[in-house]
Known about the structure:
Elements: H1 21-32, H2 40-51, E1 55-59, H3 66-77, E2 81-85, H4 93-96, E3 97-102, E4 107-112, E5 119-123, H5 130-133, H6 137-142, E6 144-147, E7 150-153, E8 159-164, H7 177-180, E9 183-187, H8 194-203, H9 219-228, H10 236-251, E10 255-257, H11 261-277, H12 285-296, E11 301-302, H13 304-308, H14 313-323
Parallel strand pairs: 1-8, 1-9, 2-5, 5-8
Antiparallel strand pairs: 3-4, 6-7, 10-11
Amino acid sequence: MNEEYRTTQRTAQVPQATVTVQEIAERIVSSVGQVIMGKNNEIRLTALGLLCRGHILLEDIPGVGKTMMAKSLARAVGCSFNRIQFTPDMLPSDITGVSIFNPKTREFEFRPGPIMAQIVLADEINRATPKTQSALLEAMEEGQMTVDGVTYRLSNPFLIMATQNPIEYEGTFPLPEAQLDRFLIRIQMGYPQPNDELKILAAQQYQHPLQNLQQVATLQELLAAQQLIKDVYVAKEVQQYIINLITASRRHADVYLGSSPRGSLALFRTAQARAAMTGRDFVIPDDVKALAEVTLAHRIIVGPAARIKNITSRTVVQDILQSTPVPGASVR
Length: 332
């Protein structure tokens, strides 16, 4: 059936030094894997988010490597990196920057905030107040920020990797739906396996592996790979399958609020990236099924009756995948 989704590969205008998306992705995954051990699937999802130019939400318990994942990714691709430690007393200007009056020139000068970087780690993002969290909305959606009426373009590429600890509810503010919807994917790290944890102990006995991590991809290669992903072919049947999943999320009996159109775009683009990362120039339904949970679950709000039954958005996505027919092959 896979051959039925194949189409003639189109050539993008990219630098001669550019290699395939698959090779770039494998370099990044292998490099980050030297620091984050035993989490190959999570690393691949993180690399996928970077290649899609989408923002990533890392949600899990403390100490499983969320912050180190962001640092390792930035070093592997040679991007500028800033970390923002969110706290309840933080102000929006602490993120975006502020205009300061210079008495010598008698003019206001803009002092950029930490968001002016290519990869930004928003650490414990749910500890900041809603007003401060909202400072990220324009940057995440439009790649720009407005301070005192002046709009500043952000770096290219621009990626926000936010972390939050789900078990620490005291002193935290839940992320609003509008901000959750702006994250391309949500990843849970989970505990490492005992054998992998032994490797972590051995690797950090004398120094942290991050200190020896080298850049494995140039900025030009990364930008070219991001552009090549858009050329991956998606058949009409697969596009309709994506829409059917999104529609089912809105009509599900246990759902109070289904996925937005941004969710269908996220599933479309990540499926293209997954196909390119595996060496294909066409998307198959398995790509969509593999990415449905990480792209849609955080966009779905279950109803009060469903929460009483311990039904989560992830179980809703799995139910939708099982009940929605998968498209078959068709003759071109």
